[in-house]
């Protein structure tokens, strides 16, 4: 049985005052879904100390465990600060920092070596969607971004169509279902039925309280990677509640 996961990506938002929101979010921690919040790196240690019933994650890591890499953070550093997850390959990192699949693969391996669960993001641009290349793009990203040896304990895959992130646009439920079913099948084929069926698949891209229940009713959607709507408990809690109300999938 795959446990649902509500993951919040705070991106470059939040100071110590924002940690008060975690206390309110923790009120939902008794539900069926796991709650994960990935604040900026400056807040990870404080969040890990104050959050009750909420997993804390990083938003990126360097592939090396240490070294002369000014401004970067390694996976062991994130783990030492209290993180148990790390987001890798987000489209904003791919676009703004030129990250390719090979680099994301190396970062994922580094995360696993530090006993972090990697949330590996995949997704197509609007041009790729309109050219009917979505599944080819997703298939290539899955193959090249995820190292061998994946397990359901240390891998989560997040499908985030680039054109839907922060735009208010959301794919149809049929489009979401098609991609999530495709990802599930690819994971089963590569890593075996056990790992493929147990790995959690998240949808991300303009998830809000108003559309969450409909998205969570789509087969193979095990939760969401939420951006702006995860910054405030008042916005994130209804999404968590919708996920708690969604049926569990074997």
What is the topology?
Layout: E1 5-9, H1 20-25, E2 34-38, H2 44-50, E3 55-58, H3 75-81, E4 85-88, H4 91-96, H5 101-113, E5 117-122, H6 126-130, H7 134-145, E6 155-159, H8 173-191, H9 193-198, E7 200-203, H10 212-216, E8 223-226, H11 233-245
Parallel strand pairs: 1-2, 1-8, 2-3, 3-4, 4-5, 5-6, 6-7
Helix pairs in contact: 7-8
What keywords describe this structure?
250 residues; alpha/beta; eight-stranded parallel beta sheet; 11 helices; 8 strands; globular
Q: Overview of this structure, please?
A:
With 250 residues, this protein is an alpha/beta fold. Helices cover 40% and strands 15% of the residues. It has eleven helices and eight strands. It has an eight-stranded parallel β-sheet. Helix 2 (44-50) links the parallel strand 2 (34-38) and strand 3. Helix 7 (134-145) runs parallel beside helix 8 (173-191). The longest helix has 19 residues, at 173-191.
Query: What summary fits the major beta sheet?
Result: 8 strands, parallel
Output the strand order for the largest sheet. Answer: 7-6-5-4-3-2-1-8
| Bulk shape | globular
What structural category do the secondary elements indicate?
alpha/beta
Helix content estimate: 25-40%
Terminal residue distance: 4 Å
Q: Write down the Rg.
A: 17 Å
């Amino acid at each position: 049985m795959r446990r649902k996961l509500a993951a919040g990506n705070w991106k470059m938002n939040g100071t110590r005052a924002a940690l008060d929101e975690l206390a309110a979010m923790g009120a939902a921690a008794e539900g069926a879904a796991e709650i994960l919040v990935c604040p900026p790196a400056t807040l990870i240690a404080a969040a890990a100390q104050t959050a009750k019933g909420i997993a804390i994650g990083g938003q990126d890591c360097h592939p090396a465990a240490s070294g002369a890499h000014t401004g970067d953070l390694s996976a062991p550093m994130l783990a030492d600060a209290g993180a148990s997850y790390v987001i890798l390959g987000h489209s904003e990192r791919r676009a703004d920092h030129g990250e390719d699949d090979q680099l994301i693969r190396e970062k994922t391996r580094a995360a696993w070596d530090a006993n972090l669960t990697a949330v590996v993001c995949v997704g197509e641009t609007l041009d790729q969607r309109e050219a009917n290349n979505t599944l080819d793009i997703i298939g290539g990203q899955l193959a090249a971004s995820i190292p061998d040896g994946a397990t359901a304990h240390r891998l989560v895959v997040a499908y985030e169509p680039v054109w839907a992130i922060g735009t208010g646009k959301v794919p149809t439920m049929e489009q979401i279902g098609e991609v999530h079913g495709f990802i599930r099948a690819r994971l089963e084929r590569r890593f075996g039925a056990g790992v493929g069926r147990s790995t959690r698949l998240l949808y991300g891209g303009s998830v809000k309280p108003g559309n969450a229940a409909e998205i969570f009713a789509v087969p193979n959607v095990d939760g969401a990677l939420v951006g702006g709507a995860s910054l405030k408990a008042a916005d994130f809690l209804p999404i968590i509640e919708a996920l708690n109300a969604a049926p569990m999938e074997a």
